Structures are given as structure tokens and as C-alpha cells.
Amino acid sequence: xxxxNLFELNNLIKSICDAHPLINDYFINKYRATESxxxxxxxxxxTVNSVISNENTLTFNVNMLYADRLxxxxxxxxxxxxxxxSSLMEVVNAMKELAPLEIDNGYSITPFTEQFADxxxxxxxxxxxxxxxxLG
Length: 136
Hints:
Layout: H1 6-19, E1 25-27, H2 30-35, E2 43-53, E3 57-69, H3 77-98, E4 102-103, E5 109-115, E6 119-132
Parallel strand pairs: 1-2
Antiparallel strand pairs: 2-3, 3-6, 4-6, 5-6
Helix pairs in contact: 1-3
């Protein structure tokens, strides 16, 4: 069985985002995405909060954020958040289908509206992703 590490998990998420029709950009670090002048919305950003090593697994506790730009009138806020929920769930489901990993089914998705580099709306979730990892 293949070992998974952060590099491989990142490549998996990036490849899913690259193929997703409603995600134009992906960042492994959300702060890079929010401070960049060259953002191609909508985007998905990932931040790894911690990595827990067990005997044959690694568990990555990850924040995923989907964001898109609001119109000047902000009348697309609910539409952006709705698309964000669907897109984030599609990325998570694709991860489960494409790799031998487990993601806690009890994750919650939280809508937001914020001023980052631009006025944005979207959703975020904290996920616990367990992957096989055998040392030795």
C-alpha cells in the first residue's frame, strides 16, 4: 500500500481542484491566497493545522476554505456560499474516491462574508483526514 504524506495529500487536492469546473485557483496556505494581488476566483485554500502520527497512519487536521468575489452590490452572497458548499463537498468526495484515505463524516461547513484582498463570500470546514503511512 502506498504511503501518503503532506506532499502527496497536497498534490491530490490540487489535482482535484485543477479538474473542478468551479474552482479556478488552489493554495496550500490561505494567507498566500488572501494577500496575493493575482487571485483567480473562485478558489480553494487549505491550511494544515496539525499532523498526528499513529502506528500506521497520519491524521491531517485541515482547514479548507472556498471563496469567491462578491459583486459591488453584494447580491451574489448566498449564491457564492451555496456554490461553495457544493464545491467543497465535491472535493471531499473526490478525495475519498481517488485515494485510500478516511475523512470524518461529521465535518461542518460554515458560510462567511469577509474582506480579504477583495470582498469575498464562501465557506470553510475543518476536516480530519487519515491516510496510510508505514515507516520502516
